[in-house]
Specification:
By secondary structure, the protein is of the alpha/beta class. It has one domain (about 5-295): Glycoside hydrolase/deacetylase (TIM Barrel, Alpha-Beta Barrel). It contains 11 helices and 13 strands. α5 runs parallel beside α6 (about 150-155).
């Protein structure tokens, strides 16, 4: 199934000098649980304390550069380290929800996802005073198989999602989804991570492993080209500022897990410098600080769910 763009899309206009920074607040091991077959029993356990140290590093970096960001917080982090959430809010950043246990949305039943979301929102809303209006799925796992989640998010009082990656990967992505922010449901917005069109294919430039693995000069050129279409959504994880934060919570015995672990080590030492360079040349703000969400309604592209 494809993305229909036959009708004019409802779009948002942002200042041309500003891009968006988002942070998925989680420790490295918890963020990888669904990719380590040995670790499935560790879902829901208290995240490693390194998430506090590394998130505070993010806050220091952002403060130095006058940056505001959207922090999508894994709720086991909020539950275990509530003062960290309050500190993020104290620095003036937007708070969003990243789920409770970092589970793939398309592996959950709708009722399970709704329960997970309600638990997450209850915990976060009891910790902060600012409104929580945004969601990012673990592993970008709102795909054609899980578009049903968007209705649940909107019903819970959220205003936007930031989970649909307009690329193809085995784990996630909808490659023909729009690459700029758009209204995916009436009154509900989608903020895709940044990509650059190269030879007819969307190349991710937004952060994470793509930032780690792409050479700095190439990343800069792709980002410059992609920014011609408007403000870009970047993302990072606090552990990416700490090359030593690679502790697995249990012994990895399977080949697939070991290969994933090795892939995660590529570029870790140089990544903090790349992140610093981003802030040296780009002005960042949060999602709601960059885009007004109250605009008039026009037709929007629709994503067709998977029938398989």
């Amino acid at each position: 199934m494809s993305v229909s763009t036959n009708e004019p899309a409802k779009r948002l206009v942002a200042p041309s000098t500003r891009h968006i920074m988002t942070v998925d607040v989680e420790d490295w091991y918890t963020s990888s649980l669904d990719l380590f077959a040995e670790a499935s029993a560790d879902h829901g356990k208290a995240p490693d304390a390194s998430v506090v140290r590394n998130t505070l590093r993010c806050l220091e970096l952002f403060a130095r550069h006058g940056c505001r960001a959207t922090f999508f917080i894994l709720t086991t982090v909020a539950e275990t380290y509530p003062d960290l959430v309050r500190e993020i809010e104290r620095h003036g950043h937007e708070i969003g929800v990243h789920g409770y246990q970092h589970r793939l949305v398309y592996n959950l039943k709708p009722a399970e996802f709704e329960d997970d979301l309600k638990k997450s929102l209850d915990i976060l809303r009891n910790l902060v005073r600012c409104p929580i209006v945004g969601f990012r799925a673990p592993y970008w796992s709102i795909t054609r198989k899980s578009l049903w989640a968007l209705e649940i998010l909107q019903r819970a009082g959220l205003r936007y999602d930031a989970s649909i990656f307009p690329i193809y990967r085995k784990l996630y992505g909808i490659p023909d989804a729009p690459v700029t922010p758009y209204e995916i449901r009436p009154g509900f917005w989608e903020f895709p991570p940044a990509t650059c069109r190269v030879l007819g294919v969307n190349v991710p430039v937004a952060g994470g492993g793509y930032l780690r693995m792409l050479p700095g000069a190439l990343l800069k050129a792709l980002t410059r080209q992609a920014s011609r279409s408007g403000a870009l959504v970047f993302y990072l994880h606090p552990y990416e500022l700490d090359p030593t934060d690679t502790h697995a919570g249990r012994r990895l015995t399977r080949l697939k897990s070991r290969l994933y672990f090795l892939q995660q080590m590529i570029g870790r030492k140089s990544n903090p410098g790349k992140i610093q360079n981003l802030f040296n040349c780009i002005r960042f703000d949060s999602i709601t600080g960059t885009y007004p969400l109250e605009t008039g309604s026009v037709a929007s592209p629709t994503l067709s769910p998977s029938v398989g």
